[in-house]
């Protein structure tokens, strides 16, 4: 079945930092793919992320974000990096349960009249440990472990069918 929705994790999946919730203002832009917070913590967007998100949008794929971070920090970092515009639904929570976040994303799409089956959904995360509950509670979602199942973001484009 064709993939209609791709849901990304953020930390260690879209960028190299492990926890953007700890970032403190002011945040300095080093370049379009790199920022630094008040304490010198740096974050760098992984190669191919922007191009892959743009290509997914061109293909009509709905993009979601499910991240274990404080919502205000997620929104701020996505806006500073100019990545916010790519995501149709963003769910950022202060708990690690990705299956709950993915369910929220799919529910929000249903509320907008977009019905998505589990097998039409792809979830990309750097931690395989989240996949068990995704499958248990949500069904046959295609889960992809970043850096193990794929080595770069552009490989996602070849996994859509």
Automatic annotation (TrEMBL):
GO BP: DNA repair
Signal peptide: none
GO molecular function: phosphoglycolate phosphatase activity
InterPro entries: HAD-like_hydrolase_sf, HAD-like_sf, HAD_2, HAD_sf, HAD_SF_ppase_IIIC, MDP_1_eu_arc
Pfam family name, one: HAD_2
Stated name of the protein: Magnesium-dependent phosphatase-1
Lineage: Archaea, Thermoproteota, Thermoprotei, Sulfolobales, Sulfolobaceae
């Amino acid at each position: 079945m064709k993939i209609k929705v791709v849901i990304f994790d953020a930390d260690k999946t879209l960028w190299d930092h492990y926890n953007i919730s700890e970032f403190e203002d002011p945040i300095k832009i080093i370049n379009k793919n790199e920022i630094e917070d008040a304490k010198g913590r740096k974050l760098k967007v992984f190669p191919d992320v922007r191009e892959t998100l743009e290509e997914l949008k061109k293909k009509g794929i709905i993009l979601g974000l499910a991240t274990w971070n404080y919502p205000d920090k997620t929104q701020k970092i996505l806006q500073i990096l100019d990545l916010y515009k790519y995501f149709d639904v963003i769910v950022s929570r202060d708990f690690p349960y990705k299956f709950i976040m993915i369910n929220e994303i799919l529910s929000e799409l249903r509320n907008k009249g977009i019905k998505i089956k589990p097998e039409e959904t792809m979830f990309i995360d750097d931690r395989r440990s989240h996949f068990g509950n995704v499958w248990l509670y949500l069904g046959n979602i295609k889960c992809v472990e970043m850096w193990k199942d794929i080595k770069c973001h552009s490989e996602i484009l070849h996994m859509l069918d």
